[in-house]
Design a protein that fits this description.
155 residues; 26% strand; alpha+beta; 3-stranded antiparallel beta sheet; globular; single chain
Length: 155
């Protein structure tokens, strides 16, 4: 079983593969909390390793990473669940600026909140490959992300 780490420090940065930065949501409109939760999940996946089949974390850690500072856990759970419906398109450019790949996927394949405060999550292999690209990436300051309160400011 995976150890769940709940230290009080937020990680400084999420190194997010440029493929994941270029995702376009094609169904529904993403809320600010959905955007923050996606990055929180990406950070958890990066910390635990991209080769895993599933990931475990605590609800407290997920809330902290996403800057969710409310006691409305039903809202957090509903927002995370709604992310399963988000379909995204992507295109990946080669080094010579030609489109190599065009495709569509879900960002997450499953998210479950357990009664003991543990959050279980699975991510499709294609999404993991896009998030883990290390040749081109964006660095996201997780502490600043947690402070942003507006969707337009976040974008």
């Amino acid at each position: 079983m995976t150890k769940i780490d709940d230290d009080n420090q937020l990680p400084a940065y999420l190194s997010k593969g440029i493929g994941a930065v270029q995702l376009r949501v094609v169904s529904g409109k993403r809320t600010l909390l959905q955007r923050k939760l996606a990055n929180a999940f990406f950070k958890i996946v990066a910390e635990q390793g991209f080769e895993k089949q599933y990931y475990l974390t605590s609800q407290a850690r997920l809330a902290k990473y996403s800057g969710f500072d409310s006691n409305d856990n039903k809202y957090l759970k509903a927002t995370a669940s709604s992310m399963l419906d988000a379909k995204v398109e992507f295109d990946v450019m080669s080094n010579d600026n030609k489109v190599n790949t065009v495709g569509a996927t879900n960002i997450f394949s499953s998210i479950a909140f357990r009664s003991d405060g543990t959050v279980y999550m699975e991510m499709p292999e294609l999404t993991k490959k896009m998030v883990s690209q290390d040749d081109r990436f964006a660095a996201i300051n997780m502490q600043i992300q947690a402070l942003i309160k507006g969707n337009y400011a976040y974008i």
